């Protein structure tokens, strides 16, 4: 029930943002029927926001947007689906509903990805779940859109993003080389010209056991580019001066370099990458929403601040974040970005009058805890420790009167 409640809250936040990021992330894995387990208040908010969102989606699809060219997307149904996924080595299949706004938003991105991947042996297909309900039920489809990736007929959940670039990246990582082998100084220079974080391993043999452990992680971890070398001189360019095997993760945010010091095996490497690939403080926006709230780390500290105020508290907030990696996700909600901040403030019953820090447990319906102290490092750490230990009193605020609620959504 906690997992279901958490998924519903994520979908509700997504609806409030009028973007399918969180709802898409939940539905893509077939985990949640968004109509279940809502309170009456949540049902009302969801229905009102969805009504406005659908109109906007329809206007965009039929107005300013270019129509999607789906010439490379294969349309499948109940009779040919099983044979198709069995006879094609790689198939990404989308189960959709024609009336679904999130599906409509995905359509042009999915079409572009299909065209980009058509020569790679990967086929993108779609199934109208309203026309082929038995097939959708057979595959456990409970929300739209739901995507599955079939490898030689074996079904796997799709866990990537919703842009064409994210779809292409996710698929390529699971069908092609997950790790780039660095063989020359020019290879190293290219790798160092990065935007996304990079993980670089120094191994004795790029075909040895250590390499296999590293590759196994690279195939499943998104948001990181993976490189590997057996050349000591190339390894030095990345600060890898110890005896092989060694591993470093580099990123452009604060805490730019992280060195691995564990046992060189899949589990330990994976934990290291997950703990270090994200910035110490994650800005909340449409792109990062699913990263924050779909993480296995269910506790978040949400800092509501405008850019000027954030710069004042940034050093202390980031320093505190270092002590709670993989335990608490430290988040920034920019109050100057009203499009994002306003619905989140409303969701937590807060105003935007001052900088605030809120603890939130995404697997609980009422797990929110308001911080009232100063923004010194020690104070933030003490609050975080009590948050982890369950020693805080939940923050509650009276709901708006019924007539006020009605006016908000009339």
UniProtKB/TrEMBL annotation:
Gene Ontology MF: a single term: protein disulfide isomerase activity
InterPro entries: Thioredoxin-like_sf, Thioredoxin_CS, Thioredoxin_domain
Thioredoxin domain mapped to chain residues: 59-176
GO CC annotation, single: endoplasmic reticulum lumen
Gene3D superfamilies (UniProt xref): Glutaredoxin
The reaction(s) this protein catalyses: Catalyzes the rearrangement of -S-S- bonds in proteins
Family matches, as SUPFAM superfamilies: Thioredoxin-like
Cleavable signal peptide: 1-27
Protein EC: 5.3.4.1
Keywords: Disulfide bond, Endoplasmic reticulum, Glycoprotein, Isomerase, Redox-active center, Repeat, Signal
Record field: compositional bias (Acidic residues): 51-61
GO annotation terms (biological process): protein folding; response to endoplasmic reticulum stress
Pfam family for this entry, one: Thioredoxin_6
Primary subcellular site in the record, as a coarse category: endoplasmic reticulum
Localization: Endoplasmic reticulum lumen
Enzyme class: isomerase
Top-rank lineage group of the source organism: Eukaryota
Name by which UniProt lists this protein: protein disulfide-isomerase
Higher taxonomy: Eukaryota, Viridiplantae, Streptophyta, Embryophyta, Bryophyta
